[in-house]
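Let's study my pick:
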Amino acid sequence: MAGDHRRVQKKNGTGAFFFFMATLIMWAVSVFFEILFNKRTELLPLIFGFSFYQFSNWACRKCISRDPLLVNTCVSLLHSSLTSASVVFILVKQLASNDVNQLFEHSQLVNTTWPWAYSALCISCGYFAYDQLDMLLYGLYSGWIPSVLLHHFILLGCFTLALYRNVTINYLILTLICELHSIFLHVRKVRRMAGLRDGKSKLVKIEWFLNMSTFVLARLLSHVLITVKLIKDASKFEKGIELPLALFGMAGMNLLNVFLGMDLFNAFRRERKRHNVHES
């Protein structure tokens, strides 16, 4: 425990900690200003999302484990599951009453908001703020520019500005399809922390298949298609911050997806190699 405390203290003295904590505080001040002074009550689900996942963290710490990484991963798994379910619900509901081509028209994605989409985006935004704070407080990151903190920084910026301006909400809901893949990322992490690392296990093989499949389809391909759609419809955007912000956000997401894919492939190779060594 003392070693973990020293590790957290050391990380909390880095430039990454101060930068991402400062931006998170500025984000929180901005949100409270919008709600309290500009009477943006539609943003209240954002506060609910932060509070709900913070409470879930407390419940996991009380009932499951006091290990900050395991607790954080369990809450992240909860978020991925709930968000995936909400995104699928929103899309199925829309597909039941709209033609596919009409559903993905530029005007539908930019200027209108599907039922429940705004609240779902607010709640996810609240989760990313909670998760950013939890990782900063417990030192659950590594490197001078931690990719996970950078990921949350980009999402908080893009999501919050979209919520303030009430534009491109449906586009951002589509980006959250990647949470289907995040489910299996978190399941793998929990499985490994529980000591289940047998590469011969059928369950592990199924998990890897689902992990890789959802990475390609729900994360990599979906984000590339969204980027292509943005570029194709660039002339339809009005002059303003929406298109540059959307392109910047998707460029960051696609780059992080490449790094994530490399990490996944290397992890898969390591598990296969360990399995082959044990067999020989």
Q: What stands out?
A: Residues 242-279 form the longest helix (38 residues).
